[in-house]
Amino acid sequence: PSVPRHTNRLINEKSPYLLQHAHNPVDWYPWGQEAFDKAKTENKLIFLSVGYSTCHWCHVMEEESFKSKEIGEIMNKHFVCIKVDREERPDVDKVYMTFVQATSGGGGWPMSVWLTPDLKPFAGGTYFPPEDGIHRVGFRTVLLRIAEQWKENKDALLESSQRILEALRHTSEIHVQGQESPPPAKEVMDTCFQQLSRSYDENYGGFSKSPKFPTPVNLNFLFTYWALHRTTPEGARALQMALHTLKMMAHGGIHDHVGQGFHRYSTDQHWHVPHFEKMLYDQGQLAALYSRAFQISGDEFFADVVRDILLYVSRDLSDQAGGFYSAEDADSYPTSTSREKQEGAFCVWTAEELRALLPDPVKGATEGTTLGDVFMQHYGVEEAGNVDPMKDPHQELKGKNVLIARRSPELTAARFGLEPVCLRALLQECRHRLSSARARRPRPHLDTKMLAAWNGLMISGFAQAGAALAEQGYVSRAAQAAAFLRTHLFDPDSGRLLRSCYRGRDNSVEQSAVPIQGFLEDYVFVIQALFDLYEASLEQGWLEWALHLQHMQDKLFWDPEGFAYFSTEAGDPSLLLRLKDDQDGAEPTPNSVSVTNLLRAACYSGHMEWVEKAGKILAAFSERLQKIPITLPEMVRATAAFHHTLKQVVICGDPQGEDTKEMLHCVRSVFSPNKVLMLADGDTTGFLYSQLPFLASLERKDGKATAYVCSNFTCSLPVTSVQELREMLSP
User: Fold this and answer.
1) Structure confidence at residue 712 (pLDDT)
2) Which CATH class is domain 10-172?
3) N-to-C CA span, the chain
4) Can you tell me the distance from the alpha carbon of 556 to that of 573, in angstroms, rounded to the nearest whole number?
5) CB-CB contact of 579 with 94 (8 Å)
6) Count of CB atoms within 10 A of residue 620's CB?
7) 49 by DSSP, 3-state: which?
8) Signal peptide location in the record (predicted)?
9) At what angle do helices 233-251 and 300-316 cross, to 10 degrees?
């Protein structure tokens, strides 16, 4: 490689996104005091650019503007330029995204914001083309106009930025109104179901026309709604909506049929042409979701999708020390000699390529049939490519095919006179060959940053899959990742989580010079993961750590006046707002998950003040839950858990005994959303007995493994039959 012509301060950072910009001619600073001091000393505006390493339009803006010497000179002359990785610093991202959304009606990345020297925003947007076009002002023009305004109208800009900040403070406040109590579960659940039902796509599943996102929070809500309304037409519809959506996604191009795992979202209504990046948080949530679909339906199709996701994560997103990487990029070089990256290049195929890779005649099929014929028929491959030009604005996918299972295996088999079992084996052989061919292509960029929150979501995925599919290997992988978090993203001296660590040279794990402290989402998703891991492994050490982290979360983030948790700690002068997220998105909002975490924590510890806290969160969000619950489906689920009270399912028995294992398998194989599982193994010196003295009074009946289903520490009569236990677990 040639020696770079420019190198800026980002060369000293660990974030893959910041390092991508270390050789721009822009004099970038990381977010921090050095940049803030320079802006104040030189009385310069700040240009803040926020993105992430697998963001397609971030790459485009870098190529067009940040690599331009001329634009770089304008930026350096008039502004102090700061680059932020939104995945490292979601706190900074959220403050300024709140501003961009409020002032422009939209948001996204790259986010471009202009700030006064005291960090107050006054202008912003997302992607800007470098030069003026018919419908858009170019980045160069915007830079020069804003520089001119600062020179000519500084006082007006400062005044305006102060007004904007006050307005944002007012509109973003979430607090309890008067004597508000948690909203009633039935009404909130029913309204949320009706709102989702109205936006549901009957043909292809999902909840919009396009673009279409996986939205695990919606599907988890529908599963819970079904579990609580099994005998009603609404319950049946909720289940049908969720399972149909999951099947259509798995058949679609959003699912990588050759390399496994799921892409970020579909650009069309049919789940066909995706935005090709792959994010860890999607894999974790979808693994858990497909595991639940398998628990409910017993359909191996869903179990196979779980195995597919976890194979991808184990192979491509796993660090050898046990952590999980953040993401894989959408863009890559089509060939090793290409000069420009293209979106989806790693994943798409021409008909010609497929024929060359799959030329073999198929035994037992209609005469002249090749593997290529069968594969292309099944996966909707067309000679001229199967991508709608309207979904390919840059013509990057022209003549290419995104694989999508257009037919059932039975239909494809019948078309060629084959048995479905034979067809499945043929398709598997074809996918294997394509995988080998794809391995010779240049791989997309891998973001090897490891985040506590997203690792938490992935640990939950492995733990829940291990429990539901009875696969001990998945539980072991979850435990390995949890041990990684305890070693690399937890400070035992302070008892606090850290946000991120990084793959370093020689595959070591590195930390920033000044580590980033964990945010609310890190605590919430790690605590949830540790509860899931305890239920899958019954190792009490995970439970003990989860309860410690819950106490720490309360101390750092709880709002004693308005209730609920702030996303960030107090005391950072560079953060102008302390916010509470009020919308479940690609990930559930931390307050939504906190309600369930607090209820689980109370069940495992006997600390009933945690139940009270859960109620206070629901009270703080009560108005939103009653008016537009569709924005908080995870919190709606938690509302049901709060009002129904979690069942404590206690199995008394020898952990190694077959009768105990049968009972545990029964509990794990049934979808029962409002329960916690614990094992009373008779060791009264253990952590669980120290927390819950009532466990010592529970005995095995006739020397057999015995189950008790308790509510608020009051227990049912003991049962020793798996069938009786199964009936007791049904709501």
Assistant:
1) 87
2) alpha beta
3) 63
4) 16
5) yes
6) 24
7) strand
8) none
9) 50
Does residue 529 contact residue 463 with C-beta atoms inside 8 Å? yes
Taking CB atoms within 8 Å and a gap of at least 24, the contacts of 200-203 are 200/241, 201/269
**Interatomic CA distance for residues 63 and 338, integer angstroms:** 16
Provide the 3-class DSSP secondary structure of residue 274: strand
Q: Which of 38, 11, 34, 36 is nearest to 22 (CA)?
A: 11
Which residues, listed in sequence order, are joined to residue 719 by a DSSP beta bridge? 707
Q: Show the tokens assigned to 493.
A: 């001296």
Return d(Cα 343, Cα 294) in angstroms, integer. Answer: 33
List Cβ neighbours of 122 (8 Å cut-off, separation of 6 or more): 114, 115, 116, 157, 160, 161, 164
For 649, the token pair is: 């399912």
Torsion (CA) 598, 600, 605, 608 in degrees, nearest 10: 50
Listed as own residue / partner, the contacts of 625-629 with beta carbons closer than 8 Å and 24 or more positions apart are 625/183, 625/188, 626/183, 626/187, 626/188, 626/191, 628/195, 629/188, 629/189, 629/191, 629/192, 629/195
Q: Which residues contact 411 (CB under 8 A, 6 or more apart)?
A: none
Element (H, E) at 644: helix 633-644
The dihedral over CA atoms of 364, 366, 367, 368, expressed in degrees to the nearest 10, equals -100
Domain residue ranges of the chain, discontinuous segments joined by +:
10-172, 347-440, 648-729
Angle at 673 between CA 672 and CA 676, to 5 degrees: 85
536 C-beta neighbours (distance < 10 Å), count: 28
Helix residue ranges, H only, 28-183? 33-42, 56-61, 69-78, 90-104, 139-152, 154-171
Secondary structure percentages of the chain, helix, strand, coil, to 5: 50, 10, 35
Look at residues 633, 635, 613 and name the one whose alpha carbon lies nearest to residue 176: 613
Q: What is the pTM of this model?
A: 0.97
Counting every residue written for the chain, the total comes to 731
Alpha-carbon dihedral sign for residues 345, 347, 350, 352: positive
Q: Kindly state the tokens that stand for 322.
A: 């046990």
- Token duo for residue 353: 């390529």
Place of tokens 């109620």: 615
Q: What are the strands of the beta sheet with 111-115, ordered from one edge?
A: 28-30, 79-85, 45-51, 111-115, 121-125
Sign of the CA dihedral 417, 422, 428, 429?
A: negative
Going by DSSP bridges, is the β-strand pair 449-451/500-503 parallel, antiparallel, or unpaired?
antiparallel
**Residue in the block written with tokens 């209609």:** 366
For the chain, which ranges sit under pLDDT 50? Answer: none
At 666, which helix (H) or strand (E)?
Answer: helix 658-669
Helix axes 452-469, 520-537, angle to 10 degrees: 20
**Residue 423's closest CA among 383, 381, 379?**
379
What's the CA gap between 214 and 505, in Å, rounded?
Answer: 35
Contact 58, 83 (CB under 8 A): no
- Per residue in 269-289, is it b (16+ CB within 10 Å) or e — as a string? ebbbbbbbbbbbbbbbbbbbb
In degrees rounded to 5, what are phi and psi of residue 469? -95, 0
Return the bridge partners of 327, or none: 279, 447
Q: Which of 267, 263, 262 is nearest to 309 (CA)?
A: 262
CA 322, CA 480: separation in Å to the nearest integer? 6
Handedness of CA 22, 24, 27, 33 (dihedral sign): negative
Q: What is the pLDDT of residue 2?
A: 67
Measured CA to CA, the distance from residue 32 to residue 42 in angstroms comes to: 16
Compute and round to an integer the Cα radius of gyration of the chain: 27
Q: What is the pLDDT of residue 444?
A: 97
Q: What is the pLDDT of residue 731?
A: 63
Burial class (CB in 10 A: 0-12, 13-18, 19+), 158: middle
CB-CB contact of 452 with 511 (8 Å)? no
H or E segment and range at residue 398: none
